[in-house]
Amino acid sequence: MKLAKLFLATAIALGSATAALAADYDLKFGMNAGTSSNEYKAAEMFAKEVKEKSNGKIDISLYPSSQLGDDRAMLKQLKDGALDFTFAESARFQLFYPEAAVFALPYVISDYPTAQKALFNTEFGKNLVQKMHDELGVTLLSQAYNGTRQTTSNRAINSIADMKGLKLRVPNAATNLAYAKYVGASPTPMAFAEVYLALQTNSVDGQENPLATVQAQKFYEVQKYLAITNHILNDQLYLVSNETFADLPEDLQKVIKDAAEKAAAYHSKLFFDGEKELTAFFEKQGMTVTHPDLAPFKAAMEPYYGEFVKQTGEKGAEALKQIQSLNK
């Protein structure tokens, strides 16, 4: 009998301890990126910072590798309050506002400071952030640098002439397709998971991605050449569901916001530092790195800017004008 009471008392004590340790808010962060990515490392840092600064009141679980669906599905989940956090590029909002593709027009955004100004300093960018909040149900917490896209191939690219006829794998996004088409390559949309095998078997001649992705996916094992084409700069937005954010008291909202800013700075540093080191890494792996003259690449894209304006009308024309003015 005494033993039974001891077990009961122990169980109650353990239950109380568990309850005391339980978070007030159990939140979810979904992403496309896998566990080896810089994005995941930064999200881990974000979750740790939030837990620490909230004194354990907020616990964030990470769901990498598209476990909760693709980015479109996760954005909808944020709107519906079914998911709390996710990543999305500024240009990805072209799904809802076609003129947002301006963020990914090849050679329009020259560097990350320009990307920051494009989103936060232009009327177009500020209006987009407001529409994301009011119409899509998501709040922008912070912006991070997510790498600049380069081109790998099975033949050397020393000039734009070497792009002619190159069967180039690109994601099924208008701006990436346009990059390949207007510089003379043959754009080949393909699921990301299929790229390594396609490169290995020469089903495609090349692909384009930030250097961190080339390393993480080990594309250097099946590609001999890397051309520094700097054609599209990627950012990454830290997003929270309006519903989730509104449920938090002000002090915890500040914890989330501050942690997102800190994580974005770390996120950006991972990419900047990595890009400084990766060219040498790829050369050690046997890749030949070339630096073609980019002026002809930029000139080749001019007709596409006209197509963009034609498709998006006055909104697109104004967005392009405002962002191009940042480079002057």
Short account of what is shown:
The chain contains eleven helices and ten strands.
Q: Keyphrases for this structure?
A:
alpha/beta; 328 residues; transport; 10 strands; 49% helix; signal; globular; TRAP_DctP_sf; ten-stranded mixed beta sheet; 18% strand; D-Maltodextrin-Binding Protein, domain 2; DctP_fam; TRAP_DctP
Describe the model.
- The protein is of the alpha/beta class.
- 49% of the residues lie in helices and 18% in strands.
- Strands 1, 2, 3, 4, 5, 6, 7, 8, 9 and 10 form a 10-stranded mixed beta sheet that branches.
- The protein is globular.
- The model is unreliable at 1-9 and 16-20 (pLDDT under 50).
- This is Sialic acid-binding periplasmic protein SiaP.
- N-acetyl-beta-neuraminate binds at residues 89, 149, 169, 209.
- It is found in: Cell envelope.
- One of its GO terms (cellular component) is outer membrane-bounded periplasmic space.
| Coarse morphology | globular
Question: How would you characterize the largest beta sheet?
Answer: 10 strands, mixed
Whole-number total of structural domains? 1
What is the CA–CA distance across the termini? 84 Å
Q: Count of DSSP helices?
A: 11
N-to-C order of helices and strands: HEHEHEHHEEHEHEHEEHHEH
Helix content: 40-55%
Count of β-strands: 10
CATH class annotation:
Alpha Beta
Approximate strand percentage = 15-25%
CATH architecture: 3-Layer(aba) Sandwich
Unreliable parts: 1-9, 16-20
Q: Give me the secondary-structure category.
A: alpha/beta
CATH topology: D-Maltodextrin-Binding Protein, domain 2
If you compute it from the alpha carbons, what radius of gyration comes out, rounded to the nearest whole angstrom?
23 Å
CATH superfamily: Bacterial extracellular solute-binding protein, family 7
Average pLDDT: 93
